[in-house]
Each structure stands twice: as structure tokens, then as C-alpha cells.
């Protein structure tokens, strides 16, 4: 059975309990918009009903580059009006529902994050049962660069990384490769992209690959290699990220790791601080994915009302200089009362329960 979701943004082929699915916006690097979210929700229901195992990847050069903010905003008008704010909030809600639907699918979900895997697209990738990266994978959470906060449940996952390195990834938006993903636990398997067609063919013909234990043994024995290059978070860097406040972290990083500090300070100070607070709430309270997504919804609702979002998008898509003039300019100038307001519950209901 071949299934084209209603908006043609996700294509599934289902046979003998296996669904092979592809995001289908290759000309946009599989950027996520409302129609794709609708197709994900539609397709997960199909997988639940007809597929024991689902393999999801992206058509073209990307798994998914994340939310299609250029599609949502009419950047050329250079204004942050009510309709644009509403569109971002609605896209954020539907994307979070799509992430949760994928994470809770009854079908065993394998995500092949080959190529660009960013933002909400990364959320789709990392909440699956098995996560595959390749030598082509470029993973990042760049939201703070444009004045929003990493979401899609990535903050929850980042809070579990060794030595608080997920805090740095979320604040800086630094890109990492498949090797680092595997050593940080973001990917379960690092497999050469040339093997992907063969893997898909094996799943189609080897009907024993319909349970988690068999799949894990198959991938480890047949396709995973030990990497010559290891990646470990330097102990001193982890110590800096474990300091008791964001200003103290940044002060120590300025002195000891100035290159990494500069990446963070170039971003929206307000959203960097909001992500820091959400990271700490995840780490200290051990939120469920559903509760984390609700928290992210509350944060997004507040930050899209701020001028940083339009400033970041203008700099990226219109001026193409990426020299945004965020306000406040520094982390030390951020008003903590405004940060705490970001965590006030959203009036819209994200889930039925």
C-alpha cells in the first residue's frame, strides 16, 4: 500500500508490517509547516494501524531543517503583527502535537537523520525508538539565533546529556556531526549513508526484523562501526556549564572558553536565558515529554511577542548579514521577572488530557 498524506508532505509505503516513510518537501529541505504537521498526524495513525515497524527519513539533502518560519512570516513587510504572531503560535502547537504523536506511536519507529537535522526536525528525529545518524548528518538547535527557544522536546532530551553539554548546544546553536551525536547519545547508531538502501531492502525482506531486540542486534552486528574519533566533553567545560547561574556560567566561559562564549553571546540574550531556565526545570523536575511540550508552548507564546524574533528573521532572510540587534544586548541585562512570565501556563489547550 502506498499512501500520500493529504498535503503530499509525507509519503508512506506499507507492506508486510513495514512502513517506509519520507518527508517530502526536498526543495525546502523538508522544513516543517502546518501542512506537514497535519500529514504527520495523519500518517502516525496509519502506521499505528498497519505497521509493526516504521522507517522514517527525508527526501533530498535533509531529514528536516526545522520550522518553516520563512513560510509563516511575510518577512518583506518587516513587521510583527497579530496575524504573524498567531501563525507562529499555531505552527508551534501543531508541531508539538506531531512530535508527541511520533514519540508515542505503537509502531517501532526508526529515524534516519541523514543530512540537515535541525530545530523541530531534530525533535522528530530524537524521540523515536531507534535513531540513526550518518557521515552526512548536521545536527543543530539554532532557535536562539532567531529569537525563539529550542523546542520539540529537545530541551528535555538535552537535560539528560553528560556534563550539561545539552545546555551549551541549546544556547549556542552549534552544529555537530554524526560522530558527536553518537557519543552524546543523540543517535543510537552511526551508519554510512551508502548502506541505507541496503538496510531498507533488508527490512523489506527479513520479516524477523519486527521487534526491538532483533532490530538492535541486526544494526549493531551488520552496520555499526567503532569510530576512530572519540568525542568527550572536556571536564573543565562541563564544570563551567554546571555553575549555579547563567551569569556565572557566562563569566567563566568568557575567561576559559571565549570562542564558545562568543557563539552564545551572538544570539538573542532573552531566549538564551529562557532556554537556560527551561533546561534547569527539565533537569531538576524530570518532566515528562508531554509536560515539557506544554512548557515549551508557554515559552513560545511569550517570546514571539518580543521584537527579537522579527529582528533575527530579518537579519537572516532579508538583510542576509546575520548581524541582528537583539534587545537586551547582553545576558546580564535580561529582566528575570520577564523570564519567569514565560513559564506562566498558556491559555490554549495543547492536549486533550
From TrEMBL:
According to the UniProt entry, its GO molecular function terms are: 3-hydroxyisobutyryl-CoA hydrolase activity
InterPro entries xrefs: ECH_dom, HIBYL-CoA-H
Occurrences of domain Enoyl-CoA hydratase/isomerase (ranges): 20-343
State if Iron is listed as a keyword: no
Any idea which UniProt keywords this protein has? Hydrolase
Q: Which GO terms describe its biological process?
A: L-valine catabolic process
Please verify whether the record's keywords include Endoplasmic reticulum.
no
Name the record gives this protein: Enoyl-CoA hydratase/isomerase domain-containing protein
User: Which species does the entry assign this protein to?
Assistant: Paramecium pentaurelia
Amino acid at each position: 500500500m502506498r499512501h500520500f498524506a493529504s498535503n503530499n508532505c509525507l509519503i508512506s509505503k506499507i507492506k508486510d508490517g513495514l512502513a517506509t516513510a519520507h518527508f517530502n518537501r526536498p526543495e525546502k529541505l523538508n522544513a516543517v509547516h502546518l501542512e506537514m504537521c497535519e500529514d504527520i498526524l495523519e500518517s502516525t495513525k496509519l502506521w499505528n494501524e498497519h505497521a509493526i515497524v516504521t522507517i522514517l527519513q527525508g527526501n533530498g539533502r535533509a531529514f528536516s531543517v526545522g520550522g518553516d518560519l520563512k513560510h509563516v512570516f511575510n518577512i518583506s513587510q518587516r513587521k510583527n503583527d497579530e496575524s504573524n504572531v498567531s501563525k507562529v503560535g499555531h505552527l508551534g502547537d501543531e508541531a508539538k502535537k506531531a512530535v508527541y504523536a511520533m514519540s508515542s506511536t505503537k509502531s517501532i519507529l526508526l529515524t534516519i537523520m541523514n543530512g540537515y537535522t535541525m530545530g523541530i526536525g531534530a525533535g522528530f528525529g530524537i524521540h523515536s525508538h531507534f535513531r540513526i545518524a550518518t557521515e552526512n548528518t548536521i545536527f543543530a538547535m539554532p532557535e536562539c539565533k532567531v529569537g525563539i527557544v529550542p523546542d520539540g522536546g529537545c530541551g528535555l532530551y538535552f537535560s539528560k546529556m553528560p556534563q550539561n553539554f545539552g545546555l551549551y548546544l541549546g544556547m549556542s546553536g552549534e552544529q555537530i556531526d554524526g560522530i558527536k551525536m553518537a557519543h552524546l547519545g543523540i543517535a543510537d547508531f552511526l551508519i554510512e549513508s551508502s548502506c541505507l538502501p541496503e538496510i531498507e531492502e533488508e527490512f523489506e525482506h527479513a520479516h524477523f526484523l519486527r521487534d526491538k531486540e532483533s532490530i538492535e542486534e541486526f544494526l549493531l552486528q551488520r552496520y555499526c562501526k567503532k569510530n576512530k574519533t572519540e568525542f568527550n566533553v572536556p571536564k573543565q567545560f562541563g564544570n563551567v556549564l554546571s555553575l549555579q547561574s547563567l551569569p556565572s556560567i557566562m563569566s567563566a566561559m568568557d575567561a576559559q572558553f571565549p570562542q564558545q562564549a562568543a557563539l552564545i553571546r551572538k544570539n538573542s540574550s532573552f531566549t538564551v536565558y529562557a532556554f537556560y531556565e527551561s533546561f534547569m526545570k527539565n533537569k531538576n523536575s524530570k518532566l515528562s515529554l508531554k509536560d515539557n511540550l506544554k512548557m515549551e508552548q508557554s515559552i513560545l507564546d511569550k517570546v514571539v511577542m518580543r521584537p527579537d524574533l522579527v529582528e533575527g528573521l530579518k537579519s537572516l532572510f532579508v538583510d542576509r548579514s546575520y548581524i541582528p540587534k537583539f534587545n537586551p544586548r547582553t545576558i546580564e541585562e535580561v529582566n528575570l521577572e520577564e523570564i519567569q512570565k514565560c513559564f506562566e501556563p498558556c491559555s490554549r489547550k495543547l492536549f486533550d488530557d
